Structures are given as C-alpha cells and as structure tokens.
C-alpha cells in the first residue's frame, strides 16, 4: 500500500508473476487513487521499489504495461529508467474505444536487456 503523511491509503504498488526464465523477472503493477494523481506519487513509489530491488539484487528484470492513452503512467515508467519494449495494436478496449498496449522493461543487469 502507498500511504501519505496522514497514513491514508493513496494507492498500491506491487510486483507479481515473479519467475526465473532465464533470469529472475517480475511484473510491476501500481494504481493511484484519483484524488492523488498528478502529484508525483506513482513516480516516487516506483523509484522506491526499484531502490529496494537494487539493494536486495533479487530481480534482474521488471516488466510493466500501460495503455496508449495513459500518458502519466508512460512518463512514470520512463522517468524511472524503463524503456518501451514493444507495442500491441488494438489490444485493449474501454468504452468502445480501442487502445494500444505499451510494454516497458527495466533491468538492474545491463546484460539482460
């Protein structure tokens, strides 16, 4: 859970689907409550999670995905060193509108990417 200084829950961040094939890999997920978006919370939370990963040196690759219309999430990932790995056309649909899925990748081992 992501909390603010008042100990209120403002969002969540997690790593899931952690496996070794061929390197230790996990998927990143995060969500910030609407009243708290555009305040840098996601960017800071992802940065904190990556710092923990670097210190523990457990994961070597983290994948994340977002939709083409979610510019804030794309910027959060890019600011934290993720790079755009691939794009899947018309992969998501919301309210009858199709969106591309953007797949991002980060690694604490430069030989993996």
TrEMBL record:
GO molecular function: protein-N-terminal-alanine acetyltransferase activity
UniProt entry keywords in alphabetical sequence: Acyltransferase, Transferase
InterPro entries recorded: Acyl_CoA_acyltransferase (IPR016181), GNAT_dom (IPR000182), N-acetyltransferase (IPR051531)
Gene3D superfamilies the UniProt entry points to: 3.40.630.30
GO cellular component, one term: cytoplasm
Residues covered by the N-acetyltransferase domain: 1-106
Family listed: Belongs to the acetyltransferase family. RimJ subfamily.
Entry protein name: Ribosomal-protein-L7/L12-serine acetyltransferase
Source organism of this protein record: Halalkalibacter krulwichiae
A UniProt-annotated Pfam family: Acetyltransf_3
PANTHER family reported in the protein's UniProt record: [RIBOSOMAL PROTEIN US5]-ALANINE N-ACETYLTRANSFERASE, GNAT FAMILY, PUTATIVE (AFU_ORTHOLOGUE AFUA_3G00765)-RELATED-RELATED
């Amino acid at each position: 859970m992501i909390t603010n200084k008042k100990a209120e829950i403002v969002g969540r961040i997690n790593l899931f689907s952690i496996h070794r094939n061929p390197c230790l890999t996990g998927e990143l997920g995060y969500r910030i409550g609407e009243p708290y978006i555009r305040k840098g919370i996601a960017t800071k939370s992802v940065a904190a999670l990556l710092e923990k990963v670097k210190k523990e040196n457990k994961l070597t690759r983290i994948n994340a995905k977002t939709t083409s219309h979610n510019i804030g999430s794309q910027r959060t990932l890019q600011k934290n060193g993720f790079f755009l790995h691939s794009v899947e056309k018309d992969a998501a649909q919301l309210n009858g509108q199709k969106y591309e899925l953007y797949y991002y990748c980060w690694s604490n081992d430069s030989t993996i990417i």
